[in-house]
């Protein structure tokens, strides 16, 4: 199996639906800021991602996670822009971008966050 890297596209897309599951059992009806969650994408991606569509991070973000420590993330509010959030991993590093030699960008653990927002689906 191989892991599919997560890239940032140079054109506008509306995003992919994702499921946020709390790691701590009990309150699955809401997700609170700064609590551990696991992010999982559509089951359609599972066959391409080694059987798992769970987001994971070592240095770069990829799909194929197992729900272990590398799959746990916290959602934290950014001061600006309004309604913006960041993803923070256990290392206190945030999800940002890393530029490849061909100038494409890949999502990676960095010191500078890539802001995102939630949209209803």
Automatic annotation (TrEMBL):
InterPro entries, per database record: Kunitz_inhibitor_STI-like_sf, Prot_inh_Kunz-lg
GO MF annotations, alphabetized: endopeptidase inhibitor activity
The protein, known as: Uncharacterized protein
Matches recorded under Pfam families: Kunitz_legume
